[in-house]
Design brief:
Helices cover 16% and strands 32% of the residues. The protein is of the alpha+beta class.
Length: 292
Amino acid sequence: MTDCKIAKLASRAAIGIDGEDAENFLQGLITNDIARAGDTCAIHAALLTPQGKILFDFFIIRSGAGFLFDCAADSAADLIKRLTFYRLRAKVVITDRSGDMDVYAIWGGAPDSLEGGVYFADPRLTDLGRRLIALSAKDALAAWCDEVPETAYHAHRIALGVPEGGLDFAFGETFPHEADFDQLHGVDFSKGCFVGQEVVSRMQHRGTARKRIVPVESGSDLASGAEITAEDSAIGTVGSVAGARGLAMIRLDRAEKALAGGKAMEAGGAAIRLLQPDWAEFTVPGAEGNTP
């Protein structure tokens, strides 16, 4: 047995997009270039509001003549409705596959290839491992991986500083840059038009992302939803947590000002420090030398 772990992600669902217009249909909507999605290579992308905020995020991979989405289960029905709204006369068939396919995360020594499902590397970050959309993965990976609960996957994700929609940022309220999509391969800035593209491009060119999701650490267990303060000033909110480690949406300018003034940061009364992900091209205030 290797160090490989597999977790069934009950929080995720599969959606199928088929039809002769599927590729062109998706290309005009999503933040990434659908041409980059292959049958073993997925893309990370989002569907935005016209104002540039994330409505849904997902992975897309080719499957036969169409595509499969790996998306949040609790918003899958709404995603289907939104895609149907945009379909108009496009020759596209949108299918809920959550009843016959499950989503899995595999990390810590996953095999390079696998039969019996749609298998791909997580396109956000290599260290996250791989994902599988299949009827069942238990038998296929029994010789490779130990089965662990979904919470173990989230602890792994949090340790790497990678946010997840619905846990670390609110759908309908968050710009892609704030959710680190520009850092984690979720936006193609050269692909041309997509819904919300003008706002996202403006933020990229002006560097106006004042808020970011960053890793945080405390000397005691953190609580999801706790407000982060520096004395009496609110500077952020804790998202998903795994013990004393978590992710938080932080106003970077306020954090920098607080630290420059010698103010300590707290979340729910517990002192915290900010960490610098090694994949991030932006600087986390006060996190020099502190990596997850």
